Amino acid sequence: MGNANPARAKRLLKKTLYSHKVSLQKIREEYDSIFFEPSIPNRVDVKEDEFRNIKMDFLHPLIAGIGRCLLYVHGGWFVNGSRKSYRSFAASLSTASESMLVLPEYRLSPEFPFPAALEDVYNVYSYLCEHKNISPSKIILCGDGAGAAMATSLVHYLKKKDLPIPAGLVLISPWLDVSLEKLEGHRKKDLFLNTEILENVASLYVGEGNTSDPLISPLRGKVEKFPPVFIQACVNEMLYSDAKRFVEKLEAAGVPFEVDEWDKLWHFFQSLPEFAPDAHIAVGNLGNAIMRIFNKSFTEDFMKRF
Q1: How many domains is the chain partitioned into structurally?
Q2: Given Cys at both, which of 31, 207, 229, 257 links 16, Cβ 3.0 to 4.6 Å?
Q3: pTM of the prediction?
């Protein structure tokens, strides 16, 4: 594939980061304008739905397995992101995985701190199971960054309430410990993130909560009986240490997992294929992992390693 263009990506992505010097409305507008694509790729059909004031997109690819559903929790550092900004990437992932994808527009911080967003994600999951009659065994939770945190936290919540858990968990550059206490990723090599930015948005999300709560920092929870997990991350980003620590817990608990590591790229490069040509390969890897989880071959491949 062609060479990545991190310099141009950095100039764009810097505009999407929370700052006290810029209004949050302006930052959100920049975020949407950067990631929005006026046309949906791959002729994916998009239908809008709503449940308990939560708007969501249902994306249907041309080819899809019967009953398979991805519930995608978008990232954006808990303060950014929307269906508008994520629809194009969601369509690509839906096509690559040959699965229907549901993209909800959950409430954002700081207007709605924890647990508002997680409640919205749970309500959408319940809506799919109870009103759309989709079996949890046919649902995979996906997310990037902060969205990956909420997807993982939802599994903790479902386990705590003894409710059916999804078939799998697919995480892209996950931010799993909002406390940042053991953030040992590559601060100097990260393209655009720094500790101050993460601390600021974390405080907006946590509100009166506790960062040691697994529903806020899912890395703090027990992972026994978790579904299979696929993680895609860049080794040179700050949040890479979260992915590494989570993998250590999964391995210790005997949970099937795979890690797809990328180098010399940046957080969620998959969403900017014009600056990172390898994004198409990465999305293909995500789709392949999702299909293997649905087909049960993911767990079988994992067990062969032991």
Answers
A1: 1
A2: 31
A3: 0.93
